[in-house]
Prior knowledge:
Elements: E1 9-12, H1 18-28, E2 32-37, E3 51-52, E4 55-56, H2 57-62, E5 66-70, H3 76-86, E6 91-94, H4 100-103, H5 108-114, E7 119-124, H6 139-145, H7 166-189, E8 193-198, H8 199-205, H9 209-217, E9 234-238, E10 243-247, H10 251-260, H11 275-280, H12 282-293, H13 298-308, E11 312-314, H14 318-321, H15 325-329, E12 333-338, E13 342-347, H16 371-379, H17 383-391
Parallel strand pairs: 1-2, 1-6, 2-5, 6-7, 7-8
Antiparallel strand pairs: 3-4, 9-10, 10-11, 12-13
Helix pairs in contact: 1-7, 7-8
Amino acid sequence: MNQALEGIKVLDLTRVLSGPYATMIMADMGADVIKLEQPVTGDDSRQFGPYVEGESAYFMSLNRNKRSMTMNLKKPEAKELFLEMIKNVDVVAENFRPGTMEKLGLGYDVLKEVNPKIIYAACSGFGHSGPYSKRAAYDAVVQAMGGIMSITGQKDGQPTRVGTSMGDIVAGLFTAIGILAALNYREKTGIGQKVDVAMLDCQVAILENAISRYVVTGKAPKPEGNRHPSIVPFEPFDARDGQIMVAAGNDALWEKFCNAIDGRELLEIDEYKTNPSRNDHYTELRPLIAVKMLNKTVKEWQDILDEAGVPNGPINTVDKVLEDPQVLARNMIVEVEHKVAGPLKIPGVPIKMSETQGEIKKAAPVLGEDTAQLLSELLGISRDEFEALKEKGIF
């Protein structure tokens, strides 16, 4: 089966998380992603644990389906080879601090002269413009500055970082979207362009109703714990043996929920008949629901609420996620065979397509394992020439 991005070559200079996440998405969809790494050390995340046979599981989880080559771009000969490679690829992706590629003499203005059709994707903390542009950033920094920490955590508690690296991952997603949009434009016009994605911008973009709540009320939203700030009931409740998340997102679901929990009397109370009113009377309503939810186990409530058509689910720990029948049925946990680490379970491809399905074909590469092959493919460099250049410290 053909894949949607088959035939697209990506020269991937990214490291750690945001950039590798974007290029991983492209590789899953069939792009030939060439991961260009620093000799000896490689991607920073190769030094992040946990390790399996000396190989970073962190790195392996983000770099499947890619090929690795090494190149020391501080060497003049390496820069010449890099510019030759640019003629033969569709996309170059990097997530250095703005100005880094320009210092190397390899910024977008240089690369587009070599290949006018090139898509240059730059993902950075604050973007390539604005007063913060040259500042360094990591996930926790943009989560803090972008507002998401201020609305996350327990009510009246401290601002809390989201448990997964939302600052990096969301930027990776937007970078992939930007690349695909640029490729589509190039298909129509033949013109390449620069894609500039800032992690901070992306955090602002996903604040969704927090911004509208502030604009309308003039009050900065604060953490609400696990409840939704404007929908009731939309939070976990204690059952007899654990907690179950309930999401009655409209008045019709509220009616179904009340019938399911033997709470028909709640439907007769005017203050609870509409969602805005339930939200206004949340402190009185929640205890009335909570006492009923204690009567059954999580599994019993799941069956009852599923039958009633009310969205619900257990709060799974990660080990439970890996065993969930729906997750497994959708091939969201797959096992790959790494040439050094051996078998490793990683997340599957979340985008399901009827004609051009994504696929995990290979595990993450060992540092530089494809260098000689790629130099031969892209530049016609022989094995002997490669060895000679390697002696100079270029690879």
